[in-house]
Amino acid sequence: MNDMQQNPLEATDTEAALAYAKERRDNIRAFVETSQDYYIAQFDKIGASSKFTATFNVMAGIFGPIWFGARGLWSWALPFLILETLALVQITRGLFGDLAADAYARIASIEGTLELRRQQLAAAIESGSDKIDVYQRTVTSLEEAIGGIRADAAALSEQGVMIAFAGLALLLVTKAVQATVANWALEARFSEWLSNRDIRSGLPRSQIIFTTLFMGLIAMAAMIHYSFPGQFTLLSEFPTDPDYRLESISAVEAFFAFCVANGEALFDFITYGIRLLLDTLELIFVSTPWIVIASLIILLTWLTAGVRAAVWSGAFLSYMGLLGFWEKAMTTLALLGTAACLSIVIGIPLGMFCARRHRFYAFIQPIMDFMQTMPAFVFMIPVIAFFGTGKPAAVVTTMIFGGTPVVRLTVLGLRGVPDSVREAAISFGATKWYLLTRVDLPLASPSIRAGINQTIMLSLAMVVVASLIGAKGLGEDVLEALQYANVGQGILAGFAILFCAMILDRIVQGPRK
Q1: Is the N end or the C end of the chain the one with fewer CB atoms within 10 Å?
Q2: Rounded CA gap, 155 and 165, in Å?
Q3: Which of 449, 356, 364, 373 is CA-nearest to residue 409?
Q4: pLDDT tens-digit series, residues 329-350
Q5: Degrees (nearest 5) of the Cα angle 415, 417, 422?
Q6: Spacing of C-alpha 239 from chain mean position
């Protein structure tokens, strides 16, 4: 009875296995398009083991990176292209290149100097000058240098065959590695293709042509450049004209001159607003008795991050006070607070607006990339042109550098709110305001707080740079230490900046609400 019950089950399992095997073979045929039976056998062999299984693909070994690129395996194609190009360059250099070209160029340069020194020596001998010995030693030294370089050039010329053999060995090893890993890499791509049919499969003719031309051009240009240096100027120097740069400089200067001339009222208004907030914070942090500010900071740290963090905050504040950094630390916090507050006030609403408007976010994303990647010393130039030097310019520079994370992470947090939760709230009659304030923002708050934290940390990173354009505070001490190589002052002021960052980080990222 048991056998009768098991046989149908075994038959069903066998049929399922056969159906799966047939479907897998059909998928492999559709994926590879060429040499289908070969790849079915190789993929079955590779799939039977979870470890790397070495196979040998002759076509991949012959065509190398072209085969990998045509199959869409560019993460393999590019490293192999670099190795093969290096090997081919070594082969062509060893067989056809002038390995001693640089040495002979140095000899020609030294010979010009030697001829001048010989003339000076002859003139000194004629006039009976007391510099005859000096010129004689110089001539002898130059002649010995030329002799040594000639010997090096001869040795380099004799190394051509060895260089060519080394390149040939590298090429053969690279070919062997390509042939060994090709099927394994293609089988991994086949597994990805099974779950995502958008991944390119087969061998499209357009990809073969593009890959061949692209890689052939790179390899040929490298071989010609390194084997025959200096003979093809186009390969060593980018085709340009000095007028391009001069005209571009003139256009940029004209643009900024126009902006300064026509936007003076706007820039004055922005400067006034920044100055108003900055003066208020400086009045609070600097003019208020230190014991009041210290107590409030410690209390705030305790409320947000706990007793241990509050103790550490007290220790950090004591460090600043005992070493005489209190006033400058408070000035730094005022400057940082102004930049961070403005960045947060602008960034969070902007992130909320972009979270549901993909096109607008796609528009401002390159602008934020520019703000975050452009070196600070570059965008300080237009800031100084518009706002002059001083604390308002430092605040604007800090906002440009540190204002983008709060926008990005606000968008990320709001887009990460599950649609099911929002739909449930809407189904119970939630208004847009209720949905935003009671559903979206609470669920996105960890990401938003992380954005605020990153904005504050990046703003602190600008403390030293901002001191270059007139910002006071701890950055001024670090800058002075750099100018006069005062190691002690720089280290102590740097620790004060670090402790300010740690206090703010604990307050913002504290586990308590």
Answers
A1: N
A2: 17
A3: 449
A4: 888 888 888 888 888 889 999 9
A5: 115
A6: 27
Q: Which two tokens stand for residue 325?
A: 């950094």
Name every residue whose Cβ is closer than 8 Å to that of residue 416 and which is 6 or more positions away in sequence. Answer: 443, 444, 447
Measured distance CA(383)–CA(469) in Å, rounded: 10
Length of the chain: 513
Q: How many other C-beta atoms can be found within 10 angstroms of the C-beta atom of residue 408?
A: 20
Q: Can you tell me the distance from the alpha carbon of 113 to that of 119, in angstroms, rounded to the nearest whole number?
A: 10
Q: d(Cα 502, Cα 513) in Å, to the nearest integer? A: 18
Q: How confident is the model at residue 422 (pLDDT cuts 50, 70, 90)?
A: confident
Residues 411 and 351 sit within 8 Å (Cβ to Cβ): yes
Give helix 36-47 / helix 160-195 axis angle, nearest 10°.
80
Residue 4, pLDDT score: 44
Cα–Cα distance measured from residue 65 to residue 71, given in angstroms and rounded to the nearest whole number: 10
Asked whether the beta carbons of 180 and 127 are under 8 A apart, the reply is no
d(CA 480, CA 401): 23
How far apart (Å, rounded) are the C-alpha atoms in residues 237 and 495? 46
Q: What is the DSSP letter of 467?
A: G
Q: Do residues 225 and 88 make contact, with C-beta atoms less than 8 angstroms apart? A: no
* Greatest alpha-carbon span in the chain: 127
What is the residue type of 116? Answer: L
Give the range among 77-81, 168-172, 446-450 with minimum mean pLDDT.
Answer: 446-450
Whether the CB-CB separation of 462 and 474 falls below 8 Å is answered with no
| pLDDT confidence of residue 174 | 93
In sequence order, what are the residues at sequence separation of 6 or more whose Cβ sits closer than 8 angstroms to the Cβ of residue 131?
124
Locate all alpha helices (DSSP H) within 196-289, ordered by sequence.
Answer: 205-227, 233-236, 242-262, 264-282
Contact 174, 62 (CB under 8 A): no
What number of other Cβ atoms are within 10 A of residue 179's Cβ? 20
Helix axes 404-415, 326-355, angle to 10 degrees: 40
Can you list the pairs that 220-228 forms with residues at least 24 positions away whose Cβ atoms lie under 8 Å?
A: 222/85, 222/88, 222/89, 223/85, 223/88, 223/89, 223/92, 226/89, 226/92, 226/93, 226/97, 227/89, 227/92, 227/93, 227/96, 227/97, 228/96, 228/97, 228/98
Give the integer Cα–Cα distance in Å for 67 and 63: 6
* Nearest Cα residue to 504 out of 327, 280, 317: 317
pLDDT at residue 10, rounded to an integer: 61
Looking up tokens 């090429």 gives 171
φ/ψ region of 51 (left if φ > 0, alpha if ψ in -120 to 50, else beta) reads beta
| Ordered DSSP codes for 412-464 | HHHHTS-HHHHHHHHHTT--HHHIIIIIIHHHHHHHHHHHHHHHHHHHHHTHH
